[in-house]
Amino acid sequence: MMKKLVWGLLFSVFFFSGEAFAQCAMCRATLETEDGGVKAEAVNDGIVYLMIFPYLLVAFAMYFSYRVYKNKKSTKS
Q1: Where is the signal peptide (predicted)?
Q2: Each residue's pLDDT tens digit in the chain (77 positions)?
Q3: Are 40 and 34 in contact (CB under 8 A)?
Q4: The domain containing residue 56 runs over which residues?
Q5: Can you give the pTM of this predicted structure?
């Protein structure tokens, strides 16, 4: 069962990865026509800013899970 899940996940990652690299046609046209690259840099900074929050949520969930696991382990001993 786990093997099928892993293969299904790998298949979906490779099958749908083309859409993940796509970007809005208007954004692409705006960024390609600008000479200075200021807007492109601003878009990249915005993407980095938006990606911070999912990583923080995952880190918080992992820390919380670790604390729960540690507390359960210490109460059993």
Answers
A1: 1-22
A2: 788 888 888 887 777 766 555 566 677 677 777 666 777 778 778 888 888 888 999 999 999 999 999 998 888 76
A3: yes
A4: 2-76
A5: 0.48
